[in-house]
Amino acid sequence: MRLGLIGLGRIGAFHAQTLADLDTVDSLVVTDAVPAVTKEVAERIGAEPVDSVAELLAAGIDGVLVAAATDTHPELVLAAIEAGLPVFCEKPLARAVTDAVAVARRLRESGVPVQVGYPRRFDPAFLAARAAVESGELGGLHTVRSTTLDPAPPPAAYLAGSGGIFRDCAVHDFDAVRWVTGRDVVEVYATGSDRGEPLFTEIGDVHTAAAILTFDDGTLGVVSVSRGNPRGYDVRLELHGTADSAAAGLDDGLPLRSLEPGVTFPAGPPHGFFMDRLATAFRAELAAFTEVVAGDRPSPCTVQDALEVAFIAEAATLSLREHRPVPIEEVRASA
Fold first, then answer.
1. Where is the GFO/IDH/MocA-like oxidoreductase domain (predicted)?
2. Could you tell me if 151 and 105 lie in one domain?
3. CA 18, 24, 27, 33 torsion-angle sign
4. How far is Cα 286 from Cα 292, in angstroms, rounded to an integer?
5. What is the pTM of this model?
6. C-alpha span between 190 and 214 (Å, rounded)
7. Which residues contact 305 (CB under 8 A, 6 or more apart)?
8. If 211 and its partner were Cys, which of 98, 135, 223, 227 is the partner (CB 3.0–4.6 Å)?
């Protein structure tokens, strides 16, 4: 299989190496807006460098991965679709929910498969969490808690163009809780704090945030996210039901220090970043995309999935700004 990869920043370069290591990928064509980056990555992993997106799309590839800046996602995805090529697009589909709706409409008309990048769907513990819900072994769910704590904020330039903590960071939690529970969110109430760091105030964002989600069956979701957790990268999911409770993310790399006397869990070292915490998930996610390209499976994370997550993120952003609960239907109608 011959694939093309657009965008070789932090996540793009990571994907490039993962793809190069997959047995199903025979050759990889790469490009980035910075020619020197294209050259360096191509030489390091043995990929074929090209100078432009147009050249990549015309290089006889079987599928395309989009890992460029968020603002370019709509045009790049649509260009690939117009070329008839299956697409893997890093989250989000678009920064603005109105753009995501417009892209989704075009994609539905095309019939070309698109997979959106939400790697927690491929993490072994999250897969087990979904299976526990589907089997009924937890009873009826009443509370779901999802956590994402980054060890340090991204660069200022990235933050300024990210769309805010709910659209950029918490979307992984929003997707995870929808996917694991199999339920839709109907209302969001969100709050946040800049923690006294002027950068976040200047760009109209927050450093730490929380959201209360109400699902269509009455289950409550609690999402907690932060741009700064010096102990490490913390990704967890808790499921509390009428018969049992379970959690994903409670391994020895959990970046929490127990204060209970005699307790040695977690043994550490703490996870340093998403690339080590979710390495297995990323590999499985891209392997799944090769199956989508081959026509062996449908997209495991569809455009409609990404659109529903975008509605939740938009509702949380609006709730944070206006200090009120926001129904998802309000956001859906305005999009």
1. 126-245
2. no
3. negative
4. 10
5. 0.95
6. 12
7. 116, 118, 175, 178, 179
8. 223
